[in-house]
Amino acid sequence: MDFQCFNIEIKSHVAHVQLSRPEKRNSMIPAFWNELPQLIQQLDSSGDVRVIVLSSTGPHFSAGMDLSVFSDETENTPIISTSQAQRAARFYDVVQRLQRSFTSLEEARVPVLAAIQGGCIGAGLDLTTACDIRYATRDAFFTIFETNLAMTADVGTFPRICKLMPEGIVRELAYTGRKMYANEAQTYGLVNAVFDTQKQLLEHVLATASSIAEKAPMAVYGCKKMITHARDHSVADTLDYVALWNASFFQKQDIAEAMRAQAEKREGVFDSLPARNINQDDDSLEIP
User: Do domains 6-213 and 217-263 have the same CATH topology?
Assistant: First the structure.
């Protein structure tokens, strides 16, 4: 896999994905929005990857969206069309495409862990709220920066961050556009842990990812599905959903192997998730 905006390393079922444009503070150029869902789908569909770690390079995690996103590079014309209605419709389509890029993280079967250093600004915050777990360095800060630019954040922050933090704090951050540093973010539950250096941060996050990768993949997949479903549905709906899930996917052999591995003080040996065919040109359906 060769990408302009990311470096990727896969080891022991853990895919480490790094934003790779530190000289530009990892701003999100048009290529970013195409590459992110593509690489997440490829990693998730491989079947071999069990956890994705998302980190960055340089002093800042991400400066957010690059303004070049709001131009049509293919036609080399501005996004503004000949009428207000056309402009609005086209803008709506662009924003929905950007939103789907981050939703790919949430829809992945495997957990996505974010390791954040320095500034996590605007769309950078949108990105991390779509991850399963967030960790940060002590100098990391988060800001809903769009307000400072006379905009309303629209790529994913509000639907997700309101489920992660108290509403009053979210409103304050949104209305003021102020920075929230890592210690405060941990206090309010946005990040799980804070570290003094990026080296310590990555060591911890990669170790956590390795611990997750040792678990039965189908069990972890089920946990992610249930937690996301519970976030967006009632208790009664989720109780029914988890009962149906286990009725379909309950793995007796994985339970037996997990118990043997614990008794023998070794890692369990589990089947990976099935590979997926993500070739958009292949509309055939094969049921095993």
Answer: no
Edge-to-edge strand list for the sheet holding 6-11: 6-11, 14-19, 51-55, 112-116, 133-137, 194-195
3-state helix/strand/coil string of the chain: CCCCCEEEEEECCEEEEEECCHHHCCCECHHHHHHHHHHHHHHHHHCCCCEEEEECCCCCCECCECHHHHEECCCCEECCCCCHHHHHHHHHHHHHHHHHHHHHHHHCCCCEEEEECCEEECHHHHHHHCCCEEEEECCCEEECHHHHHCCCCCCCHHHHHCCCCCHHHHHHHHHHCCCEEHHHHHHCCCCCCEECCHHHHHHHHHHHHHHHHCCCHHHHHHHHHHHHHHHHCCHHHHHHHHHHHHHHHCCHHHHHHHHHHHHCCCCCCCCCCCCCCCCCCCCCCCCC
Give the model's pLDDT for residue 72.
Answer: 52
Tell me the whole-structure pTM to 2 decimals.
0.91
Going by C-alpha positions, the residue among 99, 113, 100 that lies closest to residue 41 is 100
Encode pLDDT of 203-221 as tens digits: 999 999 999 999 999 999 9
For the chain, which residues make up each domain, given as ranges? 6-213, 217-263
- CATH code given to domain 6-213: 3.90.226.10
Confidence at residue 1, expressed as pLDDT on a 0 to 100 scale: 63
Name the pLDDT band for 286 (thresholds 50, 70, 90): very low
Mean pLDDT, range 138-161, rounded to an integer: 96
CATH tag for 217-263 (out of 2.170.130.30, 1.10.1200.10, 3.40.50.1970, 1.10.12.10)? 1.10.12.10
